Amino acid sequence: MAYLDLTQFGGHAVAAPAELEVASAVLTPLEWQVVGIARRDRLASLQAPGRWARFVQIFFGGDRASPRLADTRLEALRRLVVLASHKGSALPAEEIAAFHAAGYTQAQLALVLARLGDAAAR
To answer: Are 96 and 79 in contact (CB under 8 A)?
Structure first.
């Protein structure tokens, strides 16, 4: 085990490496379930179906987009996962802002993106 001399900082706070922040970030089992389900959702699930789409769906059937989740916090997570699954880490700023406004941290965002990247690599 190595020793890291931090006396030069004189007791002041030091920024933690990003890896430690991701390791300390957690999601509840329900949130992980939302991540798992949202990975299979289409981009179209982020938009409300128009009149024509509803008409075609009624008469010809087809896949229905996932309904919005009642919990706004979980819906923000679902939207972010759907976008990240289809577009990678190039996420719109407004979706990231909505994710943070729902109460999620930057570390939780990094955790979700890392998990999606690991799943894509497999």
So the answer is: no
Q: Give the separation between CA 61 and CA 59, rounded to whole angstroms.
A: 6
The contacts found for 10-17 with CB under 8 angstroms, 24 or more apart, are: none
Is 115 part of any domain? yes
Task: State pLDDT tens for residues 1-33.
Answer: 455 565 666 555 555 454 554 556 899 999 999
Span 33-42, mean pLDDT?
91
Amino acid occupying residue 40: R
Q: Is residue 12, in this structure, part of any structural domain at all?
A: no
Backbone angles phi, psi at 45, to 5 degrees: -70, -10
Answer whether residue 2 is part of any domain. no
Residue type for position 6: L
